[in-house]
Amino acid sequence: MLDTGGQNDCRAQTIPSGLLSGRAVSRRIVFSLPHITRLEQAGAFPRRRILGPARIAWSADEITAWMQSKLNARGACPFYGPTPLLGTQDRFLSKRDVSRLVVYSGRHIDTLERSGRFPRRIAIGAHRRVYLAREIAHWIATRPTALPGDTA
How many CB atoms lie within 10 A of CB 15? Predict the structure, then answer.
């Protein structure tokens, strides 16, 4: 029998389902790369992998797990049912992005959210709240043509 001398068996190492560039991670979670670096240094975000002298990437699985933990902390959404399981296609949206999609002002979105007529935000940092793109798309597809009290 071959003794590996205590080295890790390559089959025991987990291989990520995909790698994401810094730009792809930034688009997916709505954080800038410098802020992602600060979160990494604080141990609050998955670590990057160094692929070469000038190339870095993150595991898509680890990013999805980080996003899922933030979504689980928020809980269920009244428009989407229980907390969904995220996949690699899911992403977060800023309020500005949501405002462009639904053609409502940020203030009107806040009013709808407070009254329970819009998906709830997800806290991803001390002062940062985002929306799940899938929930916004579902809300757009199922909303009535005019909500009572809408003036926009």
Answer: 9
Is residue 97 assigned to a domain? Answer: yes
Listed residue (136, 131, 2) closest to 67, CA to CA: 131
Name 72's Cβ contacts closer than 8 Å, sequence gap at least 6. Answer: 83
User: pLDDT by residue (tens digit) across 50-86?
Assistant: 999 989 999 999 999 999 999 999 988 777 778 889 9
Rounded CA-CA distance 28/137 in Å is 16
Total structural domains in the chain?
1
Q: Name the residue range of residue 89's domain.
A: 18-142
Percent of the chain with pLDDT over 90: 68
In a domain, residue 99? The reply is yes
Q: Can you name the residues that pair with 58 across neighbouring β-strands?
A: 20
pLDDT given at position 10? 45
* DSSP secondary structure letters along 96-129: HHHHHHHT--HHHHHHHHHTT-SPPPEE-SSS-E
d(CA 16, CA 61): 6
In a domain, 58, yes or no: yes
152 located within any domain: no
Q: Would you say residue 16 has pLDDT above 70?
A: no
